[in-house]
Amino acid sequence: MENQFCQLKSIAQISQKPNFVMYLFQKIKKAKHAKKKRKNYLLRLTHKSKNGQNRPVELVDKLSSNGPFKPGDIVRVRSKEEIQATLDGWNQLKGCAFMEEMWRYYGTKQKVFKSVNKFLDERDYLIKKCKNIYLQEGVVCEGIKDIAECDRSCFFFWREEWLEKIE
Predict the structure, then answer these.
(1) The domain that contains 85 carries what CATH number?
(2) Residue 11: pLDDT band by 50, 70, 90 thresholds?
């Protein structure tokens, strides 16, 4: 019956020092993850974006010059063309995926809920650090239609480069 608890209640347990078996398991997972990251990095060096051209670094740098957003700031999700120009062949920018369900929000005005500095990666149950990622009020996933229905209503992660502050 322990699985019925909210995830927030289990964070204290997750943050406790693991026993030797869990410690060993986490080390193996981290090594596998590091190997996978190295492999993906090498693949991305030669991979081109969806439009067949390498992603211009200057464009990503230009789009990220907004400065940090604060909770309550009104932002506009950039146009489809601007967002696509930042994505690689895996629909990612700096490791953050732009999900198919997020496209319906391009060009809309949203309110910043909060910034994300750390999150629990449920694939390997590790707390991961990040920067320049924001959550928007009321903008949640309604389930990935291609895979299966999901009722969790998770927030989408939005990179700073995909958002534009409205003065």
Answers:
(1) 2.30.30
(2) low
